[in-house]
Specification:
The complex is a heterodimer of chains A (263) and B (406). With 263 residues, chain A is mainly α. Chain A has 11 helices and no strands. The longest helix of chain A has 29 residues, at 67-95. In chain B, the strands form 4 sheets. In chain B, strands 10, 11, 13, 15, 16, 17, 19 and 20 form an 8-stranded mixed beta sheet that branches. A 6-stranded mixed beta sheet of chain B has the order 5-6-7-3-8-9, sandwiched between helices. Chain B has a 3-stranded antiparallel beta sheet with strand order 2-1-4. The chains are: A mainly alpha (263), B alpha+beta (406).
């Protein structure tokens, strides 16, 4: 309760920082806000060009030429949110050392700013994606609501992992470096660009341990498959997410004092 | 009612042999300690009442900033407790964590929000902040183009935009020019009158003495001395000279002031007197009267070189006049044990009305930092009264010759 109270008291700072971060990122560029869209768009374009012919045949019974693009978009946008939150949370304490050393404020504000910032970017691009779905007649209808619990799970997992690594990163800078590499592998070990079904049996078995797999699959199922996601399969990532958050809270509480000495 | 209580405060940093040792401590079962604690502050206790101002004095690395950071809450104490009642504002180092790419206005806004004010509150006081900081059109330029003085002006203006209950200032003000220092001290005085408690670290003797009710000396991570700013400043000077080689003595003079005597003792001061032109010791001097300062010393060990220095200070401990036999080009050489020497310095007491003291130092070279044989604060105390001149104010008699033409 005290935590929530202090976050509420510092809402001005949190919202102000989100606004400033957002402005700062784009105010000195000519195309401004367009860059939020251009970056994932180019990625989608590349993957579509390279993989659509290979993958298209893998969608059984699909006659819609956009199916693969929509499948790809739903996975990449969701993954983008996850990777933005987790990498930025990993570095947030180090990046804000200057601030942390000079002013006493609730440290928890920093990861919250990270989440809100990433969420803002996500909302912009996801709205555009939704508009595209509506215009092209591929909007899934009521199952689209499943996006909300999926997003909840994804953010919880991202922030749990992010804060845990963020605390560790202050003491062992290797963590940040390692996570960047690890995230690359994680991306390719999650069926985002490809379909799970193209993998050999034994790999599919191992991929079941990847907590991001059911979440991404949920997005793909909801948006590209136009069906409700497999709720049971989401219990595993939700469990991992809660565990990550508990680890994060424990690490944070135990080491926040030493953290300030180390920065 | 106290606004700040610091009790049993200590801070230690964990030191590991290597990064791997830390990792090992974290992950091995049982968490066996693999670090040793490096204590930078130990057993600090003090209490401040609303409206009180305390100066913190000490050499670099004594632990002053660590103490302030703990009070400000940016680092956590290893031991002990800090109780702050009310709102605390801290000005630690330069700039309150300003972001170099944002404008002064944006940074002021953000710093204010970081102190827990809302955007609306900040909008309301923004014009006051800008007026006080006086950085003109720079306010809409990115902070990276600011001089350190400008950053400090802005930071001070933001930190004191609302009257805090406790204000903590860490040397930051020394960056500002005389004009702004004056202005900021004026604001601090106003806030103190309204009940703000001040805690300030400074090497600026005049600042500490003019604004603080008391002072503490931090030395080697411990609270070495607590008392009136003037006494603590004297003690600090003695400490600078001493570097831990010799004990420092405190004597209470008859008037209740604290006399500091320190030094290594190769030479010692036997007596110090202020004499009138008839050679009689006096304690009251008329403005402009010819007097002589007589210093008798004894050599306790053979020393190659000796300089005697004296410093006249006013009631607040501010320097009025000081010099030494080095600057007067009469350095003594080849002194032998048992020798007794008398110095006599004649001067007209062209001083303002008030009470003065004289400090005497025996050392080698041009100042007392190198070899301090003996340092004696408040060796003589005398009062100056105006018996023959027209009335005037200030610390010196500047012998006016008035000529009016009309």
């Amino acid at each position: 309760m005290k935590l929530i109270q202090s976050i509420w008291n510092y809402r001005g700072f949190i919202l102000g920082s989100v606004k400033r971060d957002f402005q700062f990122k784009y105010q000195n560029s000519l195309l401004g806000i367009l860059w939020i869209v251009l970056q994932p768009l180019s990625m989608i374009l590349v993957y579509t060009l390279i993989f659509s012919q290979v993958m298209h045949a893998k969608f059984p019974g699909s006659t819609n030429p956009l199916t693969y693009s929509i499948y790809l978009c739903s996975g990449i946008l969701a993954w983008g949110l996850f990777s933005e939150i987790s990498t930025r949370a990993t570095n947030t304490f180090i990046e804000n050392a200057n601030l942390l050393k000079k002013i006493n404020f609730p440290r928890i504000c920093l990861p919250i700013i990270v989440v809100l910032n990433a969420a803002l970017n996500f909302i912009i691009i996801f709205s555009l994606f939704t508009i595209f779905l509506l215009l092209s007649g591929n909007f899934p209808g009521v199952t689209f609501l499943a996006v909300l619990p999926l997003l909840g799970t994804l953010i919880l997992l991202a922030i749990g992992v992010g804060i845990s690594l963020g605390v560790l990163n202050v003491f062992f800078r290797d963590v940040g470096q390692f996570f960047t590499i690890f995230l690359q592998f994680w991306f390719w070990l999650t069926p985002i660009v490809y379909l799970k079904s193209i993998l050999p049996e034994w790999v599919q078995m191992w991929i079941a341990y990847n907590p991001m797999e059911p979440v991404i699959a949920g997005f793909q199922q909801t948006i590209a498959g136009q069906a409700w996601p497999n709720w049971i399969s989401l219990l595993y990532p939700l469990g991992v997410a809660l565990l990550a958050c508990i680890v994060a809270a424990t690490l944070f509480r135990r080491h926040v004092g030493d953290m300030m000495d180390e920065l | 009612m106290s606004s700040l209580i610091v009790s049993g405060l200590g801070k230690a940093y964990k030191q590991y042999a290597s990064r791997w040792a830390r990792l090992a401590e974290w992950i091995t079962p049982g968490h066996r300690t693999r670090h040793h604690l490096h204590w930078v502050l130990q057993d600090i206790n003090f209490t401040l009442k609303p409206g009180e101002a305390m100066g913190i004095i000490g050499i670099n690395g004594a632990g002053k900033s660590t103490l302030l950071k703990m009070i400000a809450g940016t680092i956590q104490p290893t031991l002990g407790e800090i109780k702050v009642s009310g709102k605390l504002a801290a000005l630690l180092e330069l700039g309150m964590g300003f972001h170099p790419d944002f404008t002064g206005r944006e940074n002021a806004m953000m710093a204010g929000q970081l102190l827990g004010h809302t955007a609306d509150e900040m909008q309301m006081v923004m014009s006051n902040i800008l007026d006080f900081a006086e950085i003109g059109e720079y306010i809409d330029q990115p902070v990276r183009v600011y001089s350190s003085g400008m950053q400090m002006r802005l930071a001070f203006s933001v930190a004191t935009a609302f009257r805090p209950d406790v204000l903590v200032v860490d040397e930051a003000l020394s960056v500002g020019d005389a004009y702004f220092q004056h202005k900021s001290f004026e604001r601090i005085r106003q806030y103190r009158a309204l009940g703000t408690t001040l805690l300030i670290v400074s090497h600026d003797k005049a600042a500490i003495q003019s604004i603080c009710d008391r002072a503490i000396l931090i030395n080697g991570g411990q609270l070495a001395q607590e008392g009136k700013p003037e006494d603590i400043m004297n003690y600090y000077n003695a400490l600078l000279a001493d570097k831990g080689r010799h004990e420092i003595k405190f004597n209470q003079t008859s008037s209740g002031q604290t006399q500091v005597i320190s030094g290594t003792g190769e030479a010692s001061i036997q007596s110090v007197r202020l004499l009138n032109s008839q050679g009689q010791a006096i304690e009251v001097v008329g403005v402009g009267q010819a007097v002589a300062l007589e210093v008798m010393i004894r050599i306790n060990q053979d020393i190659p070189e000796l300089v005697m220095g004296y410093l006249v200070k006013d009631r607040l401990g501010q320097d009025i006049f000081g010099s030494n036999t080095h600057h007067l080009q009469q350095v003594l050489h080849g002194l032998v044990k048992g020798e007794e020497i008398t110095f006599a310095i004649k001067f007209p007491a062209n001083l303002g009305v008030g009470s003065y003291s004289v400090a005497i130092a025996l050392h080698s070279a041009s100042n007392h930092i190198a070899n301090n044989y003996e340092w004696h604060e408040l060796a003589v105390i005398f009062s100056v009264v105006n018996m023959q001149y027209p009335e005037f104010i200030g610390s010196s008699w500047l012998n006016p010759a008035l000529k009016i033409t009309r």
